[in-house]
Amino acid sequence: MALAIQIQNVRPTGGFEHQIRLVNPVMVAQEAIESLARSFRQMRNPSGRCTLKFPLDIILMIATHLDACSLVCFALTCKSLHSLWEPRNLPLQLAEKEKSLLLLERDIPFLYYCHHCTKLHRWHRRWSRAYIYWNEESLPCKRSLDKHLWLPLTCHISYHHTRLVMNRHLYGSNHGLPLRVLNQRTRSSHHPNGVVISVTQHARISNDHLLVLSAISITHSRGDSVSLRRYIDDFGHALCRHVRIWRDLPDSFPIQLPELAKRTGQSQFLASGPAFGSCTLCPTDYTITIKWQGPKKGFNIEVLVYRGLGGCRTPFSWHWRTNTWLYPREELRSVYSPDCRPGSIREQWDEAADVA
């Protein structure tokens, strides 16, 4: 074992002399580690508790194997480690910062991650869909106001809600909102021309993917098929960003629901169904039934719209983007998600019927 030579000045009775002493470098390193350990113990909190009970040299060795993201989380485990590595002084790239905040979101129940400002926000159990969307002052991040699924009358869901619902599903009951907050009781709207529209919304989770069903019923209060046809063609609502109920120019986008398109020589409506269809661009399937209820009640149009919102882990994912944004030149949904063939969302909904 190599030895180091240490020269000391010694003052005997007659004057100064040089004294040579052999020093073991291992002992020097051990003394330095013990000195750091004493400092480390002094930095501990008053209760004397520390997340790790290992010697300081072991803790330092562990830290050398951690990336910047993991080191930040490591430093946040207790005050002692926080004193050794100040998280604010650790340089993090945007991707590393997002990764570390996502880890904290999983461990801290009352916080959720916001992709728009790259921060953690506090959420409240009293939140409802209307509370998040309409009360703008209560939103932690104002830049996320437009990040929601908004289809007039038929569907309105904030991304904050979907993320919190999935956080609860993935991390536990204390991490988010229950699935029932996405459900919506039947609400009806009465139009001056006598048309009555009723919509009910339900939600399910299948294979860690969020599914939403909108049940739409359109009828006329006096059974007037002509007025009902006029409303369908001029004011009907959208099933998704690409398929809608009302009619427009033949070359326009989106397209009208094929089962409701009036054909030459046809009366106002043709009783049929249930008929199954799908949007070719976004993960949306539907079932439509047109019933004749007699001269007094006329036709009743029932549409079930099945929407696949994906895992809701980011508002920039294909599932969320294609449901909320409109791209006239967007590729077919089978290109983005080979498993998302037409009819698959409806099948997933039926399979999740027995899932709590």
Secondary-structure element series:
EEHHHHHEEHEEHEEEHEEEEEHHH
Helix content: 25-40%
Number of domains: 2
Largest sheet: 6 strands, antiparallel
Strand order of the largest sheet: 7-8-9-14-13-12
Q: Strand pairing plus helix content: what structural class?
A: alpha+beta
Low-confidence stretches: 1-11, 43-48, 131-136
Q: What is the global morphology?
A: elongated
Rg measurement, Å? 32 Å
Give the DSSP E fraction (strand runs of 2 or more residues). 25-35%
Could you tell me the number of beta strands? 14
Work out the helix count.
11
Measure the end-to-end span: 67 Å
Whole-number mean pLDDT: 78
Structure description:
Helices cover 29% and strands 26% of the residues. By secondary structure, it is an alpha+beta fold. It folds into 2 domains: 93-181, no CATH class; 183-354, no CATH class. It has a 6-stranded antiparallel beta sheet, with helices on both faces.
